[in-house]
Amino acid sequence: MSRPTLSQELRIIPIPLATEVRAGDSITDTLLEALKHQKLALLRGDILVVKHKIISKAEGQLVPLDTIKPSAPLRAWARRHHLDARVTQLALAESKRVVRRKRAVLITETKHGLVCANSGVDVSNVDGGSHALLLPEDPDRSAAQLQRELKRRLRLSIPVLITDTFGRPWREGLTEVAIGVAGMEPLHDDRGRRDPHGYRLRVSVDAVADELACAAGLVCGKLTRTPACIIRGFRYRPGRGSARELIRSAANDLFR
């Protein structure tokens, strides 16, 4: 029988920002300045979790809503459900597949392969409703770039997670998911190991990147101006992981 793994004590350290991130800003500079202001430092073994919105803003993923011209049927549907037809039109343009459109809900599969409401298009925490914010063009690439820049500046290899807020089938409320990963394995595969009672595990593959994203969501709220945090104390597995590994293939998806 294998020895049981000792429980871990984790810390989630918020990184609030005093100013808005704008297109062209350096996220690395912004976060390092915020850490300095808070008298914090990244340490070996830390994980940096960043909400996608500041990444998207810095990358210029903003769309003026007055440039979007919805179709007449879409305007009628949106009017019936008290929605902004321009946001819905943009969500459709950002999707590769409509999973479900019913009542006031539009669920799509994005070009990244993510299944979420409105292709991740959002107008909250942007500029009051004049612009919509898209997901990063390639969240894994954005995470890898931030990780490389931090390594160059700090001489530390700090894993980076980029997260977004999703709803879930069969469950009320929103939670966080990892949409970009760099520097760590997003899945911990314990199949073949034995539990403390000697039973050999058969299906235990933990989505640790999503679990860490959820933990980060407890301090990175929509109303707190805290779009990033440090998770300290988690024994991650270093590697060339990506968030794409978290997307279940169509062949293994029982709900497609």
Tally the structural domains: 2
Quickly give the structural class: alpha+beta
Total beta strands: 12
Percent in helix: 10-25%
User: Do you know the CATH architecture of the largest domain?
Assistant: 2-Layer Sandwich
Task: Please identify the top-level CATH class of the largest domain.
Answer: Alpha Beta
Poorly predicted tracts of residues: none
Instruction: Provide mean pLDDT, rounded.
Output: 92
Q: SSE order, as H and E?
A: EHEHEHHEEEEHEEEEHE
- Discrete helix count: 6
Large-scale geometry: globular
Structural Rg: 20 Å
Largest sheet: 5 strands, mixed
Report how far the terminal alpha carbons are from each other.
Answer: 39 Å
Strand content: 15-25%
CATH fold-level label of the largest domain: 60s Ribosomal Protein L30, Chain: A
Oligomer: single chain
Q: Trace the largest sheet across and list its strands.
A: 1-12-2-8-9
Q: Let me know the CATH homologous superfamily of the largest domain.
A: CofE-like
Describe this structure in words.
This protein is α+β, with helices and mostly antiparallel strands and about 260 residues long. It folds into two domains: about 10-60 and about 135-245, 60s Ribosomal Protein L30, Chain: A; about 65-130, Alpha-Beta Complex (CofE-like fold). It has six helices and twelve strands. The strands form four sheets. The chain has a five-stranded mixed β-sheet with strand order 1-12-2-8-9. The model has no long low-confidence stretch (mean pLDDT about 90).
